[in-house]
C-alpha cells in the first residue's frame, strides 16, 4: 500500500473518501489534486510518464467547479480509455477554464497495482481557499 | 445549519423537527443502539438538508443503515411532488440502479464447501471485476448499446445470456420505461461500451452463500429458499456509464438550480423542477443507466451459471440457479402514494434504500403478489445477509421503502488503520469465507468491522413494520473488485 504522501492527506469520512490538498500556487493545487486522485487509485510511483495527454476544461462556473471538472476529465480518461497518470502540468488557468497535460501511460495489469476504484469527484463539502502559505482544497470522492 | 438533534419518538423512530430552511421534518428509523453512531454525525445534517428542497412531501427519511454520504445521506429516501417537486441526480447517486440480485440453487452447502476455492477462482476469471481497465473480451457496438439502454435485462436474455424466467422477477421487469439514448452523452456511451458484466470495486461483489435460517417458512417456500440451499448474491450497478450520467447531470444542475432560484445547502444537492427540460433529460438518461445496471446484473448472473457449470459439471436443470429477485438501491421513480390522506404522484428518490411494496401491490410479479416484494439486504462479507419482504408499514410511512444494507460505521482510513498488521483474507478463511479481490486496498477497507451489524439494521425495519424478515444467508465465497 502506498504511504500517504505529505502533499495531501485523507480526512475521515464514513461513506466515502475525503482529501485535503495543499500547494503554493493555484495552478499547482490543481496539478497536486490530480496527483492525489491517482495516488488514491494506484501506486503512482509504478506509473511512468511516457506520454502526454492534453487536458482541456472550459465553461466552469467557478474555481471549485473547475477543480471538479478537471478531475472528472482525468477520471474519464482513466476509466474509459485505460490511462494511468503520474504527473500533471497546468499551463493556462482562469476561473472558468484550464489547459494542461497529464503524463502517464496505458494501464498494464502486470506493473500497475490498483488499490481501489473512484466512481466520481463530488461537490459535497467542496472547499478551495487561499491563505498566507498558499492554496488548499478539500474534496470528497465517491468510491 | 449544523448537526441537528433527533428526538426519540419510539423504539424505532426519531424525529428531526423542522427548523431553519427545512420544509418538512426529518424522520430517522433507528434503534437506540444505531442512534448512538448517528448522534452528532453529518448524516443527520444531510437528512435536514434534503428537507430543504422544494416540493418535498411527508418527511425527509433516513433508514437504519443511513450513513454520511455526499449531498443526500446514504440510506436516504425522499418523495417529491410530481408537479411542484424536483429531481436531484445526487439523490440517486453516481451508481444509478446499484442493486442486488439473488439466485437460489438446488445445491446443498455440503456439496459446495470442498470446491469453494475452485468456484471462487472460476467466478473471478469468468466475471471481470473491471478494476484498472475495461473488459477486453466483450464490447458493444453503438447500435447494441442503444438497444440495451432501452431494453435492459431483456436485451441480454435475448442474446442467449439468461433465462426468460429471470425477467419476471426483476424490479420493473428489468426495464425502466422512459429511457432515451439521445439524452446520453458521448462520454457515457464510451464508458459503457466495455464494462457490461463487470462487478466494479468498493462494496460491490458476487457472493456465494447458503440459507442459514428461515424466519417465515411459508414465504421462504414461495421464494424457493430452503435451509442449507446454496444461494448467490450479485451486488453491482451501472458502472462507468451511470457515473458519467450522474456527473453530466450534476454539472448541468448546478447551473439549473441557480437559474430556477433554488437555494442549496450543499452544491451536491443540485436539482431541477420536475417540469423542467433539465429534469426530463436527466430522467431519460437515468432510465438508460437503470437499464444498463439491470443488463449488467443479468450478464453477471449468466457468468455465475457458467462458473457453476464449469466447476460442478452441472447443467441448468441440475444446478437450478433461478433468480429469486433483483432490486434497485439507487433510483428515482414516479409512484402513487398516499400523503396526508390524499393520493399523490410522487417522484421517490431512493439513495441506498430498497423499494418494499407490501402484499397485494399491483406492481409486483404475479408469483409474489401474495407475499409482498422480496427485499435483498446484503451485510458485510464476513457475517450474513437477509431476505425480507415488503410490508404495509412501508406504504404508510416511507414511500414504500426500506433499508438496503449494513451501512458503514468506520471510514476507510479508520478501517485501514484497524487492518494494519492483520491477514484479513486468512481471518475470513478461518471464518469459512473464501475471498478474492482485485483491488489491493479493498479487503481492508471493506472489512466486516467497518460495517454496522446488518442484524441490528434489519431488526429496526422489521420492528417498525416497513418489511418482514424471511431468511438469513451466510457467505462462503466472495469475489470483489
Topology:
The complex is a heterodimer of chains A (143) and B (481).
Chain A: E1 8-11, E2 17-23, H1 26-41, E3 51-57, H2 63-81, E4 83-93, E5 98-106, E6 120-121, E7 127-131, E8 134-142
Antiparallel strand pairs in A: 1-2, 2-8, 3-5, 4-5, 6-8, 7-8
Helix pairs in contact in A: 1-2
Chain B: E1 7-8, E2 13-16, E3 26-29, H1 32-38, H2 42-50, E4 56-67, E5 74-81, E6 86-87, E7 99-108, H3 109-112, H4 116-126, H5 142-151, H6 153-158, H7 164-168, H8 186-192, E8 205-214, H9 217-223, E9 229-236, H10 239-259, E10 272-273, H11 277-312, H12 316-319, E11 322-328, E12 330-339, E13 342-351, E14 354-355, E15 374-377, E16 385-390, H13 392-397, E17 401-402, H14 412-419, H15 424-430, E18 434-437, H16 442-445, H17 454-463, E19 467-480
Helix pairs in contact in B: 4-11, 5-11, 8-10, 10-11
Question: What features would you describe in this structure?
Answer:
The complex is a heterodimer of chains A (143) and B (481). Chain A has 143 residues and is of the alpha+beta class. In chain A, 24% of the residues lie in helices and 38% in strands. Chain A is built from two helices and eight strands. Chain A has helices at residues 26-41, 63-81; strands spanning 8-11, 17-23, 51-57, 83-93, 98-106, 120-121, 127-131, 134-142. In chain A, the strands form two sheets. In chain A, strands 1, 2, 6, 7 and 8 form a five-stranded antiparallel sheet that branches. In chain A, strands 3-5-4 form a three-stranded antiparallel sheet. In chain A, helix 1 (26-41) runs parallel beside helix 2 (63-81). Chain A is globular. In chain A, 50% of the residues are buried. The model of chain A has no long low-confidence stretch (mean pLDDT 92). Chain B is α+β, with helices and mostly antiparallel strands. Chain B is built from 17 helices and 19 strands. In chain B, the strands form four sheets. In chain B, strands 7, 8, 9, 11, 15, 16, 18 and 19 form an eight-stranded mixed sheet that branches. In chain B, strands 1-2-3-4-5-13-12 form a seven-stranded mixed sheet, with helices on both faces. Chain B has a two-stranded antiparallel sheet with strand order 6-10. In chain B, strand 12 and strand 13 (342-351) form a beta hairpin. The radius of gyration of chain B is 21 Å and the shape is globular. Chain A binds chain B through residues 1, 10-17, 42, 61, 64-65, 68-69, 72, 76, 79-82, 107, 109, 112-117, 119-120, 122-126, 140, 142-143, and chain B through 41, 43, 67-71, 74, 90, 93-95, 130-134, 187, 190-191, 200-202, 240, 243-244, 246-247, 250-251, 254-255, 266-268, 270, 408-414, 416, 438-442, 445, 481.
Amino acid at each position: 500500500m502506498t504511504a500517504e504522501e505529505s502533499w495531501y492527506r485523507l480526512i475521515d469520512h464514513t461513506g466515502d473518501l475525503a482529501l485535503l490538498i495543499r500547494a503554493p500556487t493555484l495552478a499547482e493545487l490543481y496539478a497536486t489534486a490530480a496527483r492525489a486522485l491517482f495516488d488514491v487509485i494506484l501506486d503512482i510511483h509504478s506509473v511512468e510518464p511516457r506520454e502526454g495527454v492534453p487536458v482541456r476544461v472550459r465553461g466552469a462556473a467557478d474555481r471549485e467547479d473547475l477543480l471538479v471538472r478537471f478531475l472528472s476529465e482525468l477520471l474519464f480518461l482513466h476509466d474509459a480509455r485505460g490511462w494511468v497518470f503520474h504527473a500533471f502540468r497546468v499551463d493556462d488557468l482562469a476561473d472558468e477554464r484550464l489547459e494542461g497535460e497529464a503524463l502517464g501511460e496505458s494501464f498494464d495489469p502486470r506493473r500497475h497495482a490498483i488499490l481501489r476504484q473512484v466512481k466520481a469527484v463530488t461537490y459535497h463539502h467542496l472547499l478551495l481557499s487561499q491563505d498566507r502559505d498558499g492554496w488548499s482544497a478539500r474534496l470528497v470522492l465517491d468510491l | 445549519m449544523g448537526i441537528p438533534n433527533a428526538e426519540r419518538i419510539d423504539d424505532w423512530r426519531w424525529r428531526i423537527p423542522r427548523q431553519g430552511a427545512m420544509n418538512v421534518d426529518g424522520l430517522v428509523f433507528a434503534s437506540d443502539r444505531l442512534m448512538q453512531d448517528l448522534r452528532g454525525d453529518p448524516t443527520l445534517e444531510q437528512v435536514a438538508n434534503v428537507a430543504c428542497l422544494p416540493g418535498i412531501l411527508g418527511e425527509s427519511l433516513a433508514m437504519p443503515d443511513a450513513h454520511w454520504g455526499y449531498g443526500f445521506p446514504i440510506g436516504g429516501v425522499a418523495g417529491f411532488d410530481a408537479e411542484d417537486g424536483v429531481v436531484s441526480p445526487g439523490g440517486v447517486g453516481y451508481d444509478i440502479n446499484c442493486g442486488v440480485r439473488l439466485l437460489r440453487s438446488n445445491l446443498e452447502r455440503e456439496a459446495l464447501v470442498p470446491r469453494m476455492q475452485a468456484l471462487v477462482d472460476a467466478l473471478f476469471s469468468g466475471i471481470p471485476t473491471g478494476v484498472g481497465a475495461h473488459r477486453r473480451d466483450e464490447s458493444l457496438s453503438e447500435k447494441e448499446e442503444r438497444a440495451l439502454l432501452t431494453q435492459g435485462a431483456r436485451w441480454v436474455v435475448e442474446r442467449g445470456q439468461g433465462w426468460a424466467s429471470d425477467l419476471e422477477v426483476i424490479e420493473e421487469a428489468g426495464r425502466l420505461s422512459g429511457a432515451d439514448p439521445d439524452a446520453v452523452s458521448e462520454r457515457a456511451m464510451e464508458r459503457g461500451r466495455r464494462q457490461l458484466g463487470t462487478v466494479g470495486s468498493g462494496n460491490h461483489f458476487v457472493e456465494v452463500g447458503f440459507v442459514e435460517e428461515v424466519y417465515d417458512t411459508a414465504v421462504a417456500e414461495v421464494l424457493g429458499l430452503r435451509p442449507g440451499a446454496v444461494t448467490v448474491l450479485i451486488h453491482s450497478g451501472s458502472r462507468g456509464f451511470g457515473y458519467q450520467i450522474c456527473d453530466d447531470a450534476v454539472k448541468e444542475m448546478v447551473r439549473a438550480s441557480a437559474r430556477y432560484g433554488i437555494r442549496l445547502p450543499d452544491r451536491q444537492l443540485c436539482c431541477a423542477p420536475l417540469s423542467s427540460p433539465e429534469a426530463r433529460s436527466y430522467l431519460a438518461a437515468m432510465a438508460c443507466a437503470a437499464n444498463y445496471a439491470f443488463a449488467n446484473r443479468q450478464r453477471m448472473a449468466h457468468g455465475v451459471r457458467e462458473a457453476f457449470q464449469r466447476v460442478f459439471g452441472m447443467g441448468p436443470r441440475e444446478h437450478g440457479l433461478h433468480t429469486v429477485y433483483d432490486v434497485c438501491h439507487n433510483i428515482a421513480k414516479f409512484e402513487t402514494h398516499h400523503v396526508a390522506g390524499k393520493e399523490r404522484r410522487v417522484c421517490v428518490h431512493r439513495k441506498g434504500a430498497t423499494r418494499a411494496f407490501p402484499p397485494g401491490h399491483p406492481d409486483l410479479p404475479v408469483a409474489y403478489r401474495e407475499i409482498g416484494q422480496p427485499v435483498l439486504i446484503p451485510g458485510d462479507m464476513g457475517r450474513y445477509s437477509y431476505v425480507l419482504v415488503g410490508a404495509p408499514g412501508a406504504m404508510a410511512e416511507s414511500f414504500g421503502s426500506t433499508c438496503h444494507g449494513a451501512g458503514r460505521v468506520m471510514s476507510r482510513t479508520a478501517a485501514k488503520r484497524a487492518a494494519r498488521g492483520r491477514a484479513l483474507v486468512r481471518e475470513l478463511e478461518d471464518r469459512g469465507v473464501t475471498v478474492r479481490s482485485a483491488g489491493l486496498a479493498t479487503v481492508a477497507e471493506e472489512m466486516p468491522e467497518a460495517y454496522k451489524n446488518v442484524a441490528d439494521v434489519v431488526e429496526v425495519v422489521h420492528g417498525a413494520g416497513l418489511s418482514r424478515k424471511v431468511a438469513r444467508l451466510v457467505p462462503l465465497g466472495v469475489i470483489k473488485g
